[in-house]
Amino acid sequence: MPTTSYPWKQQLLRQAEILHDIALPHRWSEASGVKLEETVVLGFYGIRRLINAFLLSEALVHRPISMTSYPARRKNEALVGETSWEMLYDLKAGIPVTHDLLFLCHQVLHNCVFSTYFDPQRSLQGIYMTSDHQRKVALYGLDLKTIQELFHRVGAE
User: Fold this and answer.
1) Are β-strands 124-131 and 138-143 bridged in parallel, bridged antiparallel, or unpaired?
2) In a domain, 93, yes or no
3) Nearest Cα residue to 147 out of 70, 65, 71
4) How many domains is the chain built from?
């Protein structure tokens, strides 16, 4: 159990900068996707460690985080093995939702879906993710800018 938040918060600030660099326009590759997932997952792991060690304020832990929820199309089927998110989730029926930081950590750290989404100009906009527990309920979309701001906010607290 960490006893000081400093190293974890410094790592979050570095990961926010990595996300900034990843978001810059460039040719997207499989290596880019791996670096993005690694950075996001490690960042949320650090946040969860800080939460579990009671090294973050309750206000930050329970602050609502905006994301988009896309309902699952086939709630009673096992969704593992499908490759098309459009087959699994209704990406046209997204609704804005808010969840706390711990919920978001669980979605990222226990993901069975982690994918990117881009704007029409092919610039990285954010990620889709859902945990194994939530996969039959919804897919969640989170803007990259929200992740960067969250890493900065936690790292600076």
Assistant:
1) antiparallel
2) yes
3) 65
4) 1
pLDDT higher than threshold 70 for residue 77: no
Place of tokens 């960067």: 148
Asked if residue 41 is part of any domain, the answer here is yes
Answer yes or no: is 1 within a domain.
Answer: no
Tell me: pLDDT of 76 over 50. Answer: no
Longest alpha-carbon distance in the chain = 45
Tokens of 22: 């990843």
Question: What tokens were used for 34?
Answer: 């791996």
Residue 70, token pair as written in the block: 């896309």
pLDDT band, very low/low/confident/very high, at 31 (cuts 50, 70, 90): confident
Instruction: Label residue 23 by pLDDT band (50, 70, 90).
Output: confident
Residue 20 counted as domain residue: yes
Question: Which ranges constitute the DSSP H helices of 53-100?
Answer: 58-61, 85-88
Give me the domain span that covers residue 40. 6-156
* Entry pTM: 0.89
Q: Within a 10 A sphere around the Cβ of 150, how many other Cβ atoms?
A: 21
Q: How far apart are CA 97 and CA 140, in angstroms?
A: 9
Is the distance from CB of 97 to CB of 68 less than 8 angstroms? yes
